[in-house]
Amino acid sequence: MPGTELSEAAAKAEEIRSASEGHVFEFEGRVIPVTSSVGVAQARYETDGETIEPVVKRADAHLYEAKKQGRNR
What we know:
- The protein is mainly alpha-helical and 73 residues long.
- The protein has helices at 6-22, 45-48, 52-68; strands at residues 25-27, 30-32.
- Strands 1-2 form a two-stranded antiparallel sheet.
- A hairpin with a 2-residue loop joins strand 1 and strand 2.
- It is elongated, with a radius of gyration of 15 Å.
């Protein structure tokens, strides 16, 4: 989400997580409960020359921290 502040990205991630939680997923007549956890990180490549790999690692770390705290976060 280029040009987006971290707080805005986190809010959008929460909006997506909440929407998936509230949606009824159904397959072959069976309701499938779905939850999601999302990790968000801000890239600093424009100011620090950071490559994408550390950004993905930070987002992944936040994702696993959310799962560790109880999932659906």
